[in-house]
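Dear H.,

Thanks for agreeing to be a second pair of eyes. The structure we're designing against is below in token form, covering all 216 positions.
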């Protein structure tokens, strides 16, 4: 008589355990699927990466349409400069010529017939993206045409000429020099203060001199 209630309780306990085991097995099977789902695995590219891909495709199309056709392996710094000049026709920045009455005027009061060109900042950023894309697509750093000296000189000339024509000087960002602290102080407070003042003045003068002589 007492065995029947025990049998029912044991049967219900085993059924609950079996159901829990089945639920756990189902969760384990669904976990890899959610981890490898397209939404979790494929993250959208950043704005920089998307722009870099578009710039790279534009340059490859330019080489394809070049007369005569030009391959990437034969591309040099001179061809990169030709590409930058080609892009000027799509520019939106007014660059006054030397004979224009608004030459050097940052805010001209009236329109003029001076050409529109690509701004120096846009060209500089473009070269940076193409330089990275070239190496990401198998190019060697030592043969990167976007890092050629001729390209750097051309960008510098564009920057200087546009600064004069538009009356907007481009200020170069100064790099912060690391602060060097003395390991120990042996001199007295007075001598330490004197030497610190002299050292600070000299360091400031050296930094100013280096900043004025640094080339782009």
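And this is the sequence the design step returned. I haven't edited it by hand at all.
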């Amino acid at each position: 008589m007492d065995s029947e209630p025990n049998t029912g309780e044991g049967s219900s306990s085993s059924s609950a355990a079996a159901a829990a085991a089945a639920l756990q097995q189902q969760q384990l099977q669904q976990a890899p699927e959610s981890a490898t789902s397209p939404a979790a695995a494929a993250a959208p590219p950043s704005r920089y990466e998307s722009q870099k891909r578009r710039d790279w495709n534009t340059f490859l199309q330019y080489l394809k349409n070049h007369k005569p056709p030009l391959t990437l392996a034969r591309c040099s710094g001179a061809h990169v400069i030709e590409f930058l000049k080609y892009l000027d026709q799509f520019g939106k920045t007014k660059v006054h010529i030397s004979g224009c009455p608004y030459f050097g005027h940052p805010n001209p009061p009236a329109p003029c017939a001076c050409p529109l060109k690509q701004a120096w900042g846009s060209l500089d950023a473009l070269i940076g993206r193409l330089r990275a894309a070239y190496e990401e697509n198998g190019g060697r750093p030592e043969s990167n045409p976007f890092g050629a000296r001729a390209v750097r000189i051309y960008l510098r000339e564009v920057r200087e000429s546009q600064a004069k024509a538009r009356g907007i000087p481009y200020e170069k960002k100064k790099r912060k020099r690391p602060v060097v602290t003395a390991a120990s102080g042996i001199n007295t407070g007075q001598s330490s203060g004197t030497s610190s003042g002299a050292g600070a003045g000299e360091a400031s003068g050296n930094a100013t001199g280096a900043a004025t002589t640094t080339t782009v």
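Two observations from my side: The domain at 47-166 is CATH 1.10.150 (DNA polymerase; domain 1). Strands lie at 93-94, 116-117.

Warmly,
E.
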